[in-house]
Write a structure and sequence with these properties.
Elements: E1 6-9, E2 12-16, E3 24-29, E4 51-57, H1 74-87, E5 93-98, H2 100-111, E6 116-122, H3 135-145, H4 149-165, H5 171-175, H6 179-184, H7 194-200, H8 214-219, H9 230-234, E7 243-248, H10 262-268, E8 273-277, H11 284-287, H12 289-303, E9 304-305, E10 309-310
Parallel strand pairs: 3-4, 3-5, 5-6, 6-7, 7-8
Antiparallel strand pairs: 1-2, 2-4, 9-10
Helix pairs in contact: 1-2
Length: about 325
Amino acid sequence: MRVGDEVRFSHVEFADSGLGTSARTVVAIPSGPGFSHRTLNPWLGGLPASFRVATIDFPGSGHGSLADGLDYSFASYVEDLDAVRRALGQARVCVLGHGWGAAMAVEYTLARPDAVEALILINPLRIFTGEGQDGEAQARMIARVRPTLIAEWTQDVAPTFQAALTGEAHWDAVETNPWWGRMIETQFAAPPPRAWHEAMQGESWRLRAYATYKGAAMSDSASAMAHYDLAERAGSLRRDLPVLILSSHHDANYVAPAARHAVPLAQAVPQAELVQWEGVGHFPFVERQGEFADAVEGFLRDCVKPGGVMSNA
């Protein structure tokens, strides 16, 4: 994949591989919300050359707009994603979502069913509350990778984060803290490659949109996000829609362990193909880039009939 110029579209930024409107298009949504397209590029470069890949940063997340007064809701993001699809000149796209991005991918598909050819959901987050996270696995990974993280969180990060949630501090003070990048390293089964560190240099982990979703669910039991269940939502997907769900059981995937997220999601979507990997964390496309590309390419190839018609056959 060639990563072309980054294009600003209204308050959304997306990077387009630039193969042109005649190619089939995969729109990739990062996790978080808060992660940027850099967590997906260049790792998706192993996908079929015949596919045009665009990665998107929503407002309040990654490199998306941070202007005041923007709406970070699913409904608003659906409109943003639809605008990107139209800007790419595509009537229909394949949508790839990582972590929270899987929920966004499903919500877009429910709102625009005729605009989506296939779904690829990587370590999807089914629920946003603390019940979805494996605290014991997280503790083991922190102890193994960076034992000081908890003390750093308690003393330095948590007070500012809570103040930002209540409007008593600006999000910039939270998002530029290097602690987030160090914590992300506990979500790899093995130390991330040098290319990951190079891609993440100078990255800010935008968390203001995160506060609308997982932040709200974990801090306010009365919030709508505290009762969100992706499996319940995905049960309404059209039955002829090809769906690939790829997940992991490893401790490093403590934010989205397969048994709590991917497995019940697959049970709610009868046509879904569920692939469960061992030995990888939350970023399988980084840790096993080639194997990931092969799995996605095989899925997309099986979904495409001669003449470009998507099917489950």
